[in-house]
């Protein structure tokens, strides 16, 4: 891409957008990371010449980031490429990853960003996929990739009705199998994970009905052993967490906001009694509380009920006679509403300030709760859990 083409506004989903990353725009992005104390994974372009990947522009970008005092958490190379193994194109891509690793090590020798790849598309994430079956072991063995990255959208999730993780689970299983055959320790990420591709479905993936899938995806992928969930997207199209122009939070944002407060990185086993699981309409996941939080050492159960019936759930080990703290999301305007409540309190910003977490619904005695129909939420267990100590 030449400079003139980069600077010319390009049609993208009905809008004309400049594709250029200027110094001024990059500085704004880095300032955003400073303000939010966020670590970032940066996707860098893959342009080739007669010598393979031409890294000159990428090197200039990375040195600019370093000069501004930033260190990315990770770097990706290119976007959804799957050249045939054994071809020049494949060899150039594998060599490009090795070159990116060398470049990152030279610029950040003390805290080198991890290299994440191949960031491949869904059509290639199949057991017989020639590209992933060669690229993943080749780059792990060479030490040029430290985390395997997949892209996935849950297109067959039952939309527009409430549903669970489906297509993405199949793809994650495949990618985990291939990764584990190459390495017992290399992490698998879902670095571009969303409810539906093509920008999402307006009136569905930006409403309360999306949160059933989202909570199930967060819970199940963590339980499967995936190390990272990169939600597509923070803002933009109809699958963003925030509305594109006003940045008003959609229901999935509020779900993630609570998840981050309750669900830490340590995942616990949950076994549902088939008599309780409602013919497959109830899913549940449990995590220890976040490390360093005020509730560290405790555990929280996430629940998703896509059925029209309520379920009585007896939580073994919750402590007989002790009270449970329950947080249930609801959509007073219906599941296609873009507004949700938590324990009856509307979730909304005050200006640009986040609200306080609403008070829990206290459920006394016996460690039992009733999960309402068509609901999702969290149950915080009382007392310390040995596995979370």
Global geometry: globular
Query: Could you say which structural class the secondary elements and strand pairing correspond to?
Result: alpha/beta
Give the H and E element order. HEEHEEEHEHEHEHEHEHEEEEEEEEEE
Number of strands: 20
Helicity level: 25-40%
Largest sheet: 8 strands, antiparallel
Q: Average pLDDT value?
A: 93
- The low-confidence parts are none
Tell me the fraction of residues in β-strands, as a range. Answer: 15-25%
Spatial extent as radius of gyration: 22 Å
Instruction: State the end-to-end distance.
Output: 53 Å
Total helical segments: 8
What does this structure look like?
The chain has 389 residues and is α/β, with parallel strands linked by helices. 28% of the residues lie in helices and 23% in strands. The protein contains eight helices and 20 strands. It has helices at 3-7, 23-36, 56-67, 88-107, 130-142, 167-182, 210-224, 251-262; strands spanning 10-12, 15-17, 41-44, 48-49, 52-53, 74-77, 114-120, 147-153, 187-194, 228-231, 267-268, 282-288, 299-305, 311-314, 324-330, 341-342, 345-346, 361-363, 368-371, 375-380. The strands form five sheets. Strands 11, 12, 13, 15, 16, 17, 18 and 20 form an eight-stranded antiparallel beta sheet that branches. Strand 6, helix 4 (88-107) and strand 7 (114-120) form a beta-alpha-beta unit. The mean pLDDT is 93.
């Amino acid at each position: 891409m030449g400079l003139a083409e980069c600077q010319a506004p390009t049609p993208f989903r009905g809008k004309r957008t400049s594709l250029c990353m200027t110094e001024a725009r990059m500085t704004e992005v880095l300032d955003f990371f400073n303000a939010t104390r966020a670590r970032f994974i940066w996707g860098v372009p893959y342009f080739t010449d007669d010598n393979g990947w031409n890294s000159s522009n990428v090197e200039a970008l990375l040195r600019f980031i370093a000069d501004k005092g930033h260190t990315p958490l990770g770097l990706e190379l290119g976007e959804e490429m799957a050249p045939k193994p054994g071809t020049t194109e494949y060899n150039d891509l594998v060599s490009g990853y090795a070159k990116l690793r060398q470049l990152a090590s030279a610029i950040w020798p003390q805290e080198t960003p991890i290299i994440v790849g191949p960031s491949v598309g869904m059509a290639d994430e199949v057991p017989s996929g020639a590209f992933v079956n060669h690229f993943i072991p080749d780059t792990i063995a060479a030490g040029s990739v430290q985390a395997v990255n997949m892209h996935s959208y849950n297109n067959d999730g039952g939309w527009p009705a409430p549903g669970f993780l489906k297509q993405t689970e199949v793809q994650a299983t495949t990618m985990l199998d291939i990764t584990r055959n190459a390495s017992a320790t290399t992490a698998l990420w879902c670095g571009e994970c969303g409810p539906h591709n093509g920008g999402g479905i307006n009136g569905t993936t930006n409403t309360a009905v999306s949160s059933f899938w989202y909570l199930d995806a967060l819970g199940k992928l963590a339980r499967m052993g995936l190390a990272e969930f990169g939600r597509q997207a923070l803002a933009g199209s109809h699958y963003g967490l925030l509305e594109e122009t006003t940045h008003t939070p959609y229901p999935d944002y509020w779900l993630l906001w609570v998840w981050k407060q309750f669900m830490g990185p340590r995942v616990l086993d949950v076994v549902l009694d088939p008599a309780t699981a409602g013919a497959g309409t109830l899913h549940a996941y449990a995590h220890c509380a976040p490390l360093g939080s005020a509730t560290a050492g405790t555990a929280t159960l996430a629940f998703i009920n896509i059925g029209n019936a309520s379920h009585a759930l007896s939580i073994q080990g919750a402590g007989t006679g002790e009270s449970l703290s329950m947080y249930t999301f609801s959509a007073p305007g219906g599941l296609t509403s873009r507004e949700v409540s938590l324990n009856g309190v509307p979730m909304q910003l005050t200006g640009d300030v986040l609200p306080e977490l609403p008070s829990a619904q206290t459920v006394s005695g016996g460690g039992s709760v009733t999960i309402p129909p068509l609901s999702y939420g969290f149950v915080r267990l009382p007392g310390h859990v040995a596995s979370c100590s």
